[in-house]
Structures are given as C-alpha cells and as structure tokens.
Amino acid sequence: MGEQHDIDDDAPIFAIAVAAELSGMHPQTLRQYDRLGLVVPARTPGGSRRYSLRHVSQLREVARMSAEGIGLPAIARILELEDRVRELHGRVRDLEERVRIELERRPGARVFAAGATGSVVTLRSGTRVRRATELVVWRPRHQLERGDSDADPAASAPQH
C-alpha cells in the first residue's frame, strides 16, 4: 500500500471551473456567491479565485439548503456560524492540550470541575469531563506562598 497523504481542507487548490464542476454549479453562480460573501475563495496574486475542499463542501451545502427553500441571507448566517463553531472547536482542542501539558508540568496541581449548578468536584487525573463543564487548574496555596518561580499572576487569585 502507498503512503497516505492528508490534504488540508483549507488549501486553496481548485480553479473556479474545477470547483464549479465538483460542486455541481455553474462558475457564474460561484462568482455570485463570492460577491455576496457566501463562499469567498482565496485569490492568487493575479486575482484568480482558488477554492479549497472546504469551499467545495460549503458550495454543496449552499445548494442543498437553497433547494430546501432557505434564503441566501439565512444560508450566509448558517455558514458564518459553522465557521465560528469550527474555530471554537479548534480553540477548545488547543486549551485542552495546554491544560494537559500544564498538569504534566505540575504534578501537585489539582483540577476541579464546576457544573451548571455551581457544584465543584475534584477530578481524578485523566478524567474527561463534558464539554459544557469549565475546567480550572488550581495549585495549593503553599505552592504560591513558597513563591514558585513558574507561578503565574492569574494563579495568585484567591483560592476557594
């Protein structure tokens, strides 16, 4: 078997004719969607449109929603919200990784979960919590009073 290469979904690789063919639309429709800000491709230095796999997927989604009777302003808002959700998922993954690294660096750290009701519970190391739960890294006050060199200003807030 050959080596598998992952293609970046956001890499601007398709000219408008190819993107139109892949999405089942006319190139003029893609130009109109670009002007309306619905699906905005990258541009080459010469100004030619370049579409990514994500753009092609969005174009297909626009066609599907439009066929279901959803208006273009609503479709634009849906696409905007989907982009925001994708961005936030990336930020959550980054923050989870930072917390994991921080916990590995600080073996004395404890993690608490605060639920929607306000209850606070200590989590065992490696315990995964629901996404809706807020994580707080806490270090015992004696570590702060010792003046650990890697203490950050946020950690000196009152401990509960």
TrEMBL record:
Record domain HTH merR-type: where: 16-81
Zinc-finger listed as a keyword: no
Pfam families: MerR_1
Keywords from the UniProt entry: Coiled coil, DNA-binding, Stress response
Matches recorded under PROSITE patterns: HTH_MERR_2
Any coiled-coil regions, as ranges: 78-105
Database matches in InterPro entries: DNA-bd_dom_put_sf, MerR-type_HTH_dom, MerR_fam
Domain of life: Bacteria
PANTHER family per record: HTH-TYPE TRANSCRIPTIONAL REGULATOR YFMP, REDOX-CYCLING DRUG-SENSING TRANSCRIPTIONAL ACTIVATOR SOXR
NCBIfam families registered for this protein in UniProt: HeatShock_HspR (NF047375)
The name this protein goes by in its record: Heat shock protein transcriptional repressor HspR
Lineage, opening ranks: Bacteria, Bacillati, Actinomycetota, Actinomycetes, Micrococcales
